[in-house]
Amino acid sequence: MNAEEARLVDATLRRLGITGVVAPEDPENAAGDWRVYDSADPTRRKDTTADALAAVVAKFREANPEPPGKPRSGPMRGFIIPPNED
Q1: 22 φ, ψ to 5°?
Q2: Looking at beta carbons, which pairs linking 54-63 to residues 24 or more positions away fall under 8 Å?
Q3: What is the pTM of this model?
Q4: Which of its termini does the chain have fewer beta carbons within 10 Å around, N or C?
């Protein structure tokens, strides 16, 4: 992700209460790729981007466990009106 996307990810993580520090992969190059880490210290941090993504998905599944757009199966109630043949 880039710096602008990183700001959005950081805000989303905070809003959902998910821990993580969004920072550039290379601390000297803020224009490069960004990731989610467990610590702000570039010498000791561990990449937790995949864990953060999984936590976001889990939060949304808690809110709505049904997958979006799930088709209904089985018969549906309704009426069929034959065409008027006059």
Answers
A1: -90, 120
A2: 55/16, 55/18, 56/12, 56/13, 56/16, 56/18, 59/16, 59/18
A3: 0.67
A4: C
Q: Which phi and psi (to 5°) does residue 70 adopt?
A: -65, 125
Cα–Cα distances in angstroms (integers) from residue 56 to residues 16, 41, 47, 73, in the given order:
8, 23, 16, 29
Residue-wise pLDDT for 51-83, tens only, equals: 999 999 998 887 776 666 666 666 667 777 778
Report the C-alpha gap between 57 and 60 in whole angstroms.
Answer: 5
Q: Which amino acid is at 82?
A: P
Helices 49-63, 3-16: crossing angle, 10 deg rounding = 50
Give the pair of three-digit tokens for residue 56. 């976001």
Is residue 48 classed as helix, strand or coil in its secondary structure? Answer: coil
How is 12-42 classified by DSSP, letter by letter? HHHHHT---EEEESSTT-TTS-EEEES-S-T
Can you name the residues that pair with 59 across neighbouring β-strands?
none
User: Rounded to whole angstroms, how far apart are CA atoms 36 and 44?
Assistant: 13
